[in-house]
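Help wanted!
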Amino acid sequence: DQQVKQNSPSLSVQEGRISILNCDYTNSMFDYFLWYKKYPAEGPTFLISISSIKDKNEDGRFTVFLNKSAKHLSLHIVPSQPGDSAVYFCAASPYYGQNFVFGPGTRLSVLP
Amino acid sequence: SAVISQKPSRDICQRGTSLTIQCQVDSQVTMMFWYRQQPGQSLTLIATANQGSEATYESGFVIDKFPISRPNLTFSTLTVSNMSPEDSSIYLCSVDLSEYTQYFGPGTRLTVL
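Answered by r_m:
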């Protein structure tokens, strides 16, 4: 049973517009969440994180929103750029030092 | 952040052979992790390697198939033993830093014929 779900395998967005990537989880013990970006032939790159004590975290063009009651988080990229085209993974963990569980990923394509 | 390198970056191996993948970090870290990403799938944790103790394996992974060494705080190896085509994957090491964030190496792309 998948504990971390990313129900959209792919997403296409026009350059300059907002990209919204969604992630749902089932384990209520998850307390810490990360987003990674992965280009082909490279390892995942950490983007942004959020802990359950917050509902929003912002870093430049990237904002992550967490809705604990809905067990849902989303990553907003504004404005989207062609270089953002990659696979995005969300990952969740119940506490520090515990292993992360990764979602299946969403492939984002930003069209010029 | 941390700079993580892996060797080899890719390899093509024959069925029944073994391959050892090396992971080197530019700083001392307590926890290192080995992941597998099979074609079209997400990252799956194989095991956690802490220096000075036996690696902890996730369900579905065993030491005989994936022996791990962790001789010091900057280095680890993962061996894929007695390979079959089902082992064709990208293997990634990652480290857990004090900021409670995992950083990944570039991965090793393994193809088993």
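OP: Thanks! One thing I noticed: The mean pLDDT of chain B is 90.
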